[in-house]
Amino acid sequence: MRLCRVTTALAVLASTCLKPNAYSTLSDSTIRQRFPRSQSRDFDIHTGPILAPILIPRVPGTENSTKVLDHFVRFFQGELPEWNIEVQNSTSKTPTHGNEDVPFRNFIASRRPPWLSDGHVGYLTLVAHYDSKIEPVGFIGATDSAAPCAMIMSAVRSIDAAMTNKWQKMQETTDEFELEDSNALGLQVLFLDGEEAFHSWTATDSIYGARALADDWDTAMYPARSTYKTKLNSIDLFVLLDLLGSGESLPIPSWMQNTHWAYQHLAKLEHRLRKMGLFKSDNSQTWLPEKDKKNDAIFQQTMMQDDHIPFVARGVPALHLIPSRFPSQWHRIGDNAEYLDIPTVEDWSLLTAAFAAEYLELEGSFEQAPVVKRHEEL
Ligand SMILES: *[C@@H]1O[C@H](CO)[C@@H](O)[C@H](O)[C@H]1NC(C)=O
Ligand SMILES: *[C@@H]1O[C@H](CO)[C@@H](O)[C@H](O)[C@H]1NC(C)=O
Ligand SMILES: [Zn+2]
């Protein structure tokens, strides 16, 4: 991604967002019981069943890219069987492939309340790109964005049962008519391909997957009388994680005024989790320092170029979680597995999970279970 001036037209579009949905905070006891600190196995860089398979070069159209895509499919099919999985395909020429059409494949997984058909569900949408840059040769892109993909996978798995419980209870206790009318949100994951430029970042040499998907979803209409006109309209909030997972603790500004409310919720949650001692990484830092920034303050006139751009340009509200100063190994061969600070990766996953749980109003939907003992490292 790249930092650039936001055009006036874009800024105007971006402010015409959907009304934010209700949001309800989790209780301390739910957080303590349901979001314990020990998940280390997922994120082991050599054997972690979620993270390790992503830590290979993943250039679009290559065998390794297919391997990572298969890993996503296997994970959701195996561990999240209630989710719908889809791969959206497109092709494009690139500055470095001559006449060749390079394939781009976006991974899409979603889960919605079972009584609602697709055009009637708004989605909290968690997004990261899974491709890696073509050079330097052997580039892994551990923070860019292998780790963010893994954070999202682990996060959605940790709240999946609560979604089941919530919806079952709603079906048992609400009459059909009211159910139809209920405004329950679904959860959606996008792992986008072709974010990186092949030659150098331009409007046409970057975010290949995101551009293809935004285009598709803008024109694919839901049936008449659906709540939402298109798949694009049904994105309640587009949360994009990028360049996260190094131990450098780089602050993330609130980039956009129309999603500042969501940034503030996330920042409050970060603050709470730190105060409760649930973070494993350096607890003296703050990732989201603009919690108290006023809504009418001036938001940066700059905006980071990234996968959210084609969505924002069509009016989708986006929360862009990317530090304003990039990690020191950004786009260098050193952005490899060892560069990751695993406690930071785990903490981001925890924060993402708790945010999604609050966004989907899952308080009270986690089954009662004995308090999980905090796992202390030896
Ligand atoms: C594919 O991934 C493997 C690691 O599993 C790596 O050794 C190999 O170099 C990668 N291939 C390409 C073309 O990057
Ligand atoms: C995308 O291509 C794959 C084969 O590579 C295919 O299995 C899948 O169904 C395609 N997706 C769509 C939406 O057509
Ligand atoms: Zn990058």
TrEMBL record:
The keyword Metal-binding applies. Residues 123-355 form the Peptidase M28 domain. Residues 1-24 form the signal peptide. One of its GO terms (molecular function) is peptidase activity. Keywords: Acyltransferase, Hydrolase, Metal-binding, Protease, Signal, Transferase, Zinc. It is an enzyme of class 3 (hydrolase). Its EC number is 3.4.-.-. Pfam families: Peptidase_M28. This is Peptide hydrolase. It comes from Lithohypha guttulata.
